[in-house]
Amino acid sequence: MTVKVQRDDFDVGAEIAALTAGRTDIGGVATFLGLVRDIAGGEAVSAMTLEHYPGMTEKMLADIESQARERWALDEILIIHRFGRLEPGDRIVLVATASAHRKAALESCEFLIDWLKTRAPFWKLEETGQGEHWVEARESDDEAAARWEEAPRKAAE
Amino acid sequence: MTVKVQRDDFDVGAEIAALTAGRTDIGGVATFLGLVRDIAGGEAVSAMTLEHYPGMTEKMLADIESQARERWALDEILIIHRFGRLEPGDRIVLVATASAHRKAALESCEFLIDWLKTRAPFWKLEETGQGEHWVEARESDDEAAARWEEAPRKAAE
Amino acid sequence: MRILYFAFLRQRTGLGEETVETPAEVRDVAGLVEWLKTRGPGHAEAMRDVSAIRVAVNQEFAGMDTAIAANDEIAFFPPVTGG
Amino acid sequence: MRILYFAFLRQRTGLGEETVETPAEVRDVAGLVEWLKTRGPGHAEAMRDVSAIRVAVNQEFAGMDTAIAANDEIAFFPPVTGG
Questions:
Q1: Which of the two ends of chain D, N or C, has the fewest CB atoms closer than 10 A to its terminal CB?
Q2: Do C82 and A55 touch (CB under 8 A)?
Q3: Phi and psi for A128 in degrees, rounded to 5?
């Protein structure tokens, strides 16, 4: 179980390789890599700055990881989330889940990224042609995370 | 759109980087990496050999890619599938889907790997302590792929 | 008591964090908000619309009625927008 | 006509592929299977249980009643197990 909240970029291939190194019991690794888009809410974005709450972020990430482990049979979980100023095309976040079975890996990866994209204590300052503005919370994202708040379950496969 | 059916190993990080290189319109890349497990059906496996039908494999993979593109708004799709003799821990398959929105990337990645794991024209010869045997098709896998045969839809987000 | 401000609250107060000693009558988050508003126009402006503010007490989400004590870490921020 | 064998069918026939000229009365996959069985004990054993065999004609899944012609590529294999 690894949670990293960092300013620096990360190496996706190296991170996935480290997750599975020397293991022969992992059947699959599901990952989601989030990137900065040059457009948001219909507006051109030249850069964004992610601010977070150091300490609380790590605590909440460790907590959501534990929840994922309770719901799914997972061998490994990795979450890396960057903060600071990022430009379009830059990597923001990586979630990787490893399991004997693909369904557990895929579902838990989706669960974690939905949570990160909506509930993690980050705030985005976007730079556009009209200057800077703080991004407001989005309802469709909240709905994606809310889907997971139904009855807990543990995927059999 | 890239489909590779190959004997050689692949570099996950380089493949994902190539998929998104120079792009600023991609919000996320979902990937699934399948690995050889040292156990299958409760039995210890020392190696397996994947046999495929050259020509038909590529044709079917191109066809399933087209189906994914019809269902979801995707920027890029990558499928790499190895054949030949593989040992526990070895990489078998990589699916990567890139989209402006994470839901399209995640759902299409799951759709493709479900299809690959059940419908792709591959046959597995497993080596165990009891010798070699051809793996038989599994029902639970067929069910996973069958889920996708409901009414087509295109994810809004 | 350690107070943290994030996003627009940090910008409007001009502070990322401050350590304050509150009067005895400040016993919950709502009381703290009212007291912080008196610290200056930036604070008053930042805290004008409490519906736009979320709060955490000791790194746990809290409400306006959450009790607070001298050694608590209290953070004010907008609704989270995720990563 | 080009015939391909995969997995256990390849092992039992001892062939990955063969090119055959079938008699005129072989017009569909079922007819081809019966005719192939006469080519030797390996072929007969491989094709003994047709319920365990799937077929593709020109790289498309086909059935026992699918018509075949001289230039077709016909492949026999077990149900696919995926990657």
A1: N
A2: no
A3: -130, 180
Q: Which residue, among B10, B105, B11, B122, has the nearest Cα to B60 in the 3D structure? A: B122
Q: How many domains does chain D have?
A: 1
Fold of A2-146: Aldehyde Oxidoreductase; domain 3 (3.90.1170)
- Identify whether D43 is part of a domain: yes
pLDDT tens sequence across B40-58: 878 899 999 999 999 999 9
Q: Best interface-test mutation with D: which of B53, B95, B119, B142 has the largest number of D CBs within 10 A?
A: B53
Q: How confident is the model over D9-63, as pLDDT tens digits?
A: 999 999 999 999 999 999 999 999 999 999 999 999 999 999 999 999 999 999 9
SS3 A29: strand
- How would DSSP label each residue in C9-33? HHHHHT-SEEE----TT--BHHHHH
Q: Is residue D63 part of a domain?
A: yes
Cross-chain CB nearest to A117 (options B16, B89, B102)? B102
The model's pTM is 0.89
Question: What ipTM score was computed for the predicted complex, to two decimals?
Answer: 0.88
